[in-house]
Specification:
single chain; 326 residues; alpha/beta; Rossmann fold; seven-stranded mixed beta sheet; two-stranded antiparallel sheet; 9 helices; 27% helix; 24% strand; Methyltranfer_dom; methyltransferase activity; Methyltransferase-like protein 24; METTL24; transmembrane
């Protein structure tokens, strides 16, 4: 009879069932998860911890190896400033250099509609468990003008409160438009790197303070070129980013400085953000007229949806005991 044991598994009062089926013994270990919510952390205790930690450490090693490979590429080019972000003789573009190399140990799921509106989320099934347990979770979403399918699925399948913002519209987009939900809040406000009443912009810190939050489980941004100044502000004021994961559409401006952008990217990584998904938005490449916004060429893939997990804080997806490499 072959029994399987899970690393770092605390059996305690765990129930073990041995079921003999056609002469084969199958071993089942019930998984017990206890969440102790503090002000801004979630500690996961139980049989899953060892498996999750092993997955996180393996992902961190793969991510760090990709970082070293990236730096070696820059050295061979003669420096970051020698890299052509939209391709050179080696057919390498910016997105190849910062491709997601970290795996979400709980698995990832695309949440929301097909195409624009859907985002890749780490551990969505973990959030679904809050529907049964009643455990709290918080989602902030910026940019909900035309499509709120991402927010709708969180409201439908989790216990999360969703705070949605968009300064360009007076109400949230479909399918939530016209529907009331006690766990949904919408305000016609945009996210900025500083408060600006004239432009209807507020910083993340201001909004979190107004709402009484110190921690967000999910932060989603689709704020049309404002994400880069917002990131720069995050890097100035936060030692630890106040969110568990981030979904953001990155829009490259024109003119574009790759060395400046890459410097920001590495500082985000140093703060613990690890990209686990990237999805190129090809619609602008195929359909936008020249001169739309800051886009000068339809051939350039300048919009990419990224998803990050924050590994520098213990939370719903990162149990205590994980130590980032940088």
């Amino acid at each position: 009879m072959l029994l399987h044991s899970t690393p770092n598994c605390r059996l305690g009062s765990t129930k073990i069932a041995l079921i003999v089926l056609f002469g084969t013994a199958i071993y089942f270990t019930a998984i017990w998860t206890v969440r102790n919510y503090t002000e801004n952390t979630t500690k996961v205790i139980g049989c899953r911890d060892g498996v999750i930690l092993e997955g996180l450490h393996a992902s961190e090693n793969r991510w760090y190896e990709a970082v070293l490979q990236r730096r070696e590429f820059f050295a061979l080019k003669g420096g970051v400033d020698k890299v052509k972000p939209m391709g050179d003789a080696g057919f390498t573009v910016i997105w190849d250099l910062i491709a997601p190399s970290f795996d979400c140990p709980q698995g990832k799921k695309r949440v929301g509609s097909i195409g624009d509106g859907g985002k890749w989320v780490c551990g969505f099934e973990v959030f679904e468990q809050t529907k049964k347990t009643g455990a709290p979770c918080v989602v902030y979403s910026f940019g909900v003008q035309d499509d709120s399918s991402f927010e709708a699925l969180f409201l439908q399948r989790t216990n999360c409160h969703v705070f949605s913002y968009d300064m360009s519209v007076s109400q949230i987009g479909n399918p939530l438009r016209g529907h009331s939900n006690p766990k949904l809040k919408f305000a016609s406000i945009g996210l900025g790197d500083k408060n600006n009443d004239t432009r209807k912009l507020k910083t993340l810190g201001t909004l979190m303070e107004e709402n009484g939050h110190t921690w967000l489980d999910v932060l989603k941004l689709d704020i049309e070129w404002m994400e880069i100044p917002v990131f720069e502000e995050f890097l100035k004021i936060y030692d630890v980013m106040p969110f568990g994961q981030l979904q953001v559409e990155v829009h490259l401006p024109e003119p574009f400085s790759f060395p400046k952008f890459y410097n920001m990217w590495e500082r985000l990584e140093e703060k613990g953000l690890r990209p686990f998904s990237a999805e190129t938005n090809l619609w602008p490449c195929l359909t936008l007229p020249l001169g739309y916004g800051t886009v000068q060429s339809r051939s350039d893939p300048r919009f990419v949806e990224y998803s990050f997990i924050n590994v520098r804080s213990n939370h719903l997806l990162v149990p205590s005991g994980f130590v980032p490499k940088i």
